[in-house]
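Reminder to self: tokens first, then the designed residues, so the page reads top to bottom the way the pipeline ran.
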């Protein structure tokens, strides 16, 4: 944190053109002002930011600070963020029995941040209902150690399949969990060749082969009388990748809700759902290369639910970190804000890991609130390692005592299900 917010930021200020002569508000003090202001209050006003600057020894007016949001300041913030992303921190691995079967549990996903239209040449969106500019944020998160890779920045129009995170190597014995946006049988083969595992829902358009013959999957599901099944299959005519197919019929209420959402999405796009997509609504369908003796259907359904932890991470970034919101409409202030808020959230993640925060057992929202209350203490201690360690130790005590996820009877948390898969699987 010290390195990124001092030396790295100061160098970025010069290289980006944000600083062209010796001034008090250099790249380091500018980035520190924004990071600690938005860590304390993601909706901080210019006046609140100048108060943080004063705490750091910088005197500047709100109007003067507002004038510093330029293409150069955005480039400075982006450069610091990219440098921070290269620093990978992790804690001791979590000890939940079902997760200990793997050397790591890697979750990957993306989220879109809509930007002002004026930025479309920098970050073009995919069109549709979004504006002319959008940023896609890609992340890979190793759940056991907490190690976060990313956020990697891509244009909104870029598909997940071509993203950097899709091609990161998998350590031997690790597990990959991703949504259908990353569905690629070719990538599954690569994961297996790396002596690792994958677990995923089934993409409706994929060809399925059973006993050497292409399976009429729709008819198979419609005629199946049991509520559960497991079989060895091959995926894709070009790869014929061998894996396990696991199925569990869902309750009628769940099926009806899935169909409603499917029709709603199709209507929005001006299309019609296929018969296979409608039949899929009746089932939880999973493919995996984890051997049957190492993972049951019940455990597979619970593990698949773990992927939602990264959805909670993005929800935290947007609802708590306000990474997709700004008080301003000036394009380069908005862009600078996005970069710096992402940097702030990454630093918060580091602080959580420093205090051995466990994302499965402890609430990211509760931890985030605790960090916000101590942002100014971090800012004051930044340049003194001993003081910084003391602040982090105090924050660790707060997080350990107040950030645990509460147990629930009606809808058990992911943590409860991982401890006891029999509580129920994914709906």
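Designed residues (427 positions):
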């Amino acid at each position: 944190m010290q390195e990124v917010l001092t030396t790295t930021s100061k160098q970025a200020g010069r290289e980006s053109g944000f600083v062209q002569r010796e001034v008090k508000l250099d790249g380091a003090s500018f980035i520190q002002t924004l990071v600690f202001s938005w860590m304390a209050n993601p909706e901080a006003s210019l006046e609140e930011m100048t108060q943080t600057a004063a705490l750091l020894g910088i005197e500047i007016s709100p109007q003067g600070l507002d004038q510093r949001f330029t293409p150069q300041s955005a480039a400075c913030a982006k450069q610091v963020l990219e440098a921070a992303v290269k620093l990978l921190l992790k804690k001791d691995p979590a000890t939940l029995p079902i997760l200990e079967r793997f050397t790591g549990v890697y979750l990957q996903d993306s989220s879109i941040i809509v930007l002002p239209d004026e930025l479309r040449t920098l970050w073009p969106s995919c069109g549709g209902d979004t504006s002319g500019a959008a940023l896609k944020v890609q992340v890979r998160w190793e759940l056991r150690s907490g190690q976060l890779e990313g956020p990697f920045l891509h244009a909104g129009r870029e598909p997940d399949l071509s993203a950097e995170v899709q091609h990161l190597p998998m350590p031997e014995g690790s597990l990959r969990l991703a949504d259908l946006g990353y569905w690629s049988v070719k990538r599954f083969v690569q994961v297996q060749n790396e002596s690792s595992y994958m677990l995923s829902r089934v993409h409706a358009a994929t060809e399925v082969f059973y006993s050497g013959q292409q399976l009429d999957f729709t008819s198979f599901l419609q005629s199946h009388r049991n509520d559960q099944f497991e079989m060895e299959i091959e995926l894709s005519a070009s790869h014929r990748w061998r894996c396990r197919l696991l199925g569990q019929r869902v309750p009628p209420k769940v099926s009806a809700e899935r169909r409603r959402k499917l029709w709603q999405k199709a209507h929005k796009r001006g299309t019609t759902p296929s018969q296979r997509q409608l039949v899929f609504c009746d089932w939880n369908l999973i493919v995996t290369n984890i051997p049957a003796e190492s993972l049951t259907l019940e455990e597979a359904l619970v593990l698949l639910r773990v992927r939602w932890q990264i959805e909670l991470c993005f929800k935290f970034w947007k609802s708590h970190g306000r990474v997709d919101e700004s008080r301003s409409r000036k394009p380069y202030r908005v862009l600078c804000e996005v970069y710096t808020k992402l940097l702030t959230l990454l630093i918060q993640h580091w602080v959580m890991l420093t205090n051995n925060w466990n994302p499965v057992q402890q609430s990211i929202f509760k931890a985030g609130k605790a960090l916000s209350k101590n942002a100014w203490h971090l800012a004051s201690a930044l340049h003194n390692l001993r003081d910084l360690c003391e602040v982090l130790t105090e924050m660790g005590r707060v997080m350990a005592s107040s950030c645990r996820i509460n147990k629930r009877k009606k809808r058990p948390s992911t943590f409860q299900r991982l401890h006891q898969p029999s509580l129920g699987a994914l709906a």
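The mean pLDDT is 89.
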